[in-house]
Amino acid sequence: MILLGVDPGCRFAGFGVIRKEGTLVQLLDHGCLRMSPSKPLSERIALFHDFFQTKIITLHVTHLALETPFLGKNAQNFLKLGYLRGVLYLLAHKHNLNLYEFSPREVKQAVTGFGGASKDQVARIILQLFPRIGSVETEDVSDALAVTLCGLWKEKSIEQLRR
Amino acid sequence: MILLGVDPGCRFAGFGVIRKEGTLVQLLDHGCLRMSPSKPLSERIALFHDFFQTKIITLHVTHLALETPFLGKNAQNFLKLGYLRGVLYLLAHKHNLNLYEFSPREVKQAVTGFGGASKDQVARIILQLFPRIGSVETEDVSDALAVTLCGLWKEKSIEQLRR
To answer: Which of A43, A69, A82 is facing B93, going by the closest CB pair?
Structure first.
């Protein structure tokens, strides 16, 4: 099982890729795709598509984990998030990925044990679990790694149910 | 100039394709892509992508016209519209299409001469302009044909400005 978790955004898109084989869990890749806001939106969407398509192919991704979006104060940001999620759905279908979606509350609950945890609390636990990523990067990738972990634990509990 | 106009939706997606060569204007294709709501969303998004990619390639489309979305009562529908628009942005970039976007008011104004026109008024004018499409189909394709025409007229006024 190779799981890609993405925290999409039109300027910064954090991601993490985790492989699980038996009891072995390994962080294969993580980072943040940065897209200049001076580029046209259609170009950024194409960049986003090509970047994650390459990750899926080269890292042999089998599962995709996303957080369900909620409508905040800015409807335009919500719509732009929709553009990127549409691209991820397209990639999930094209590359035959299993898709997991979790509410922000589920992700926080899974990672910190508390559904109302703050962004900082999530980031601190992510840094404890993956000290390699370094605190500078944590901000950009912690949400993506949190949702990736959530997908990993979900799969684990499905496996346990099957036994 | 070959212009594709799309009125995206996760169940019905109306479209029109119009060619303009000098003073000659021809309706090349029109219709409605129907997607069963029983299919998973990612499959419908992939269907939508493949359908319009085929149209763009086979009809040698050069321009894409869309209506700007507005947040209605249902945030989930708005988000789903975002998924499909993301796919259209991706196709526009991949196939090097010129992208036009118009507000619903601009489209109604261009077609009926009145920005506050009803859906029915728009449909009646579309049927007068394209009697071939038949009144049964008008409902599904009239919004798409209205935005296609809007793109056509926009290009015409740009051309006139250049002279």
So the answer is: A43
